[in-house]
Hints:
The protein is α+β, with helices and mostly antiparallel strands and 367 residues long. The chain has 10 helices and 12 strands. It has helices spanning 2-8, 27-40, 54-73, 76-90, 139-146, 209-230, 271-290, 306-312, 314-345, 354-357, and strands spanning 44-47, 92-100, 105-109, 116-121, 124-138, 154-161, 165-170, 173-179, 187-191, 233-237, 260-264, 358-361. The longest helix has 32 residues, at 314-345.
Amino acid sequence: RDLLDFYAGRQxxxxxxxxxRRLVFNYARAFVEKMTSFLVAxxxxxxxxxxxxxxxxxxxxxxxxxLLGVCRANNLEQLDLETETDCAVLGDACYKVTWDAADKxxxxxxxxxxxxxxWWAPGDLSRVWKIASRYRLDAASVTADCGYTPRTxxxxxxEVWTERxxxxxxxxxxxxxRPNPYRFLPFVLYPNLRDPKTFWGTSxxxxxMESQRELNRAMSQLSRILELSGNPIAVLENVEExxxxxxxxxxxxxxxxxxxxxxxxxxxxxxxxxxxxxxxMLYRALHDLSESPRAAFGALERDLSGIALEMELQxxxxxxxxxxxxxxxAYNRRNAMILRLLAQFGxxxxxxxxxxxxxxxxxxxxx
Length: 367
């Protein structure tokens, strides 16, 4: 929840004091959306034939066509973009691949990772043997989908899956228990980026949160100084009482003898330049920590060759490469589930070995 609030721009901590100015320059969100756009743009899927035989070539083309049909039916291009944004913010994401018996087609959805729980084999983080998914539905939907009438207007449902069994709970009460019809876990749970030897991933926001908050504070402070300098403060010396003292064109002040009046200049001595230099330093730190150089936003201060541009964008390219290693495995698992469901329930046997023949085409980041 803290990460979602930060992404949405609720980045200040503590209670707001009366009259306090709290500006938000949400670079954190811009970094996430920029990285996501570079990562998923132009993604496509392919099936390599197992051999050059005409039958194998035909099987591969039919499998590709089936995957394309499922992608279009589920609008996976948009779903992948939304899921990738969610993954960058929360640190993890998930796809659920199931068979819709009513429409006789494969459905691909993206469950809220905040409601997912996973159990994996000891010492092997890649072998997940049980997943629980918790979510909320209104009473009418629960009755229509599960044949169970909850006691409240909105119910909490928990699905518990293993390769052998499926269990459903509504508000803690068991509703259904039956064998898993798919004979595999229909979830593809994957991290954004993973710390070594850990299962859950890390958010892209964590490295920039402190710098983002400090940038908001420094910009708010500078804004307040500039506002005060635009509405000058009158300083009176050797004056016991003052009435009708106003700073405006044509104003006349009557001052006693030995008194002095002047306007306080908050910008004298180059103080503002120190604030600006500090803000520039925070700005550079944000780009460094997010691994998104300024050039990724189209701000090129000089003409660059293709190789020079590639060197300028190296931090971004390296981060995208790390993410694509994880996404390739996740997309291949998802596509393998799609083909298995089409073969099991749709009667489409492609003769495909998902471990060897599925491939993800990534569009180059640079032109």
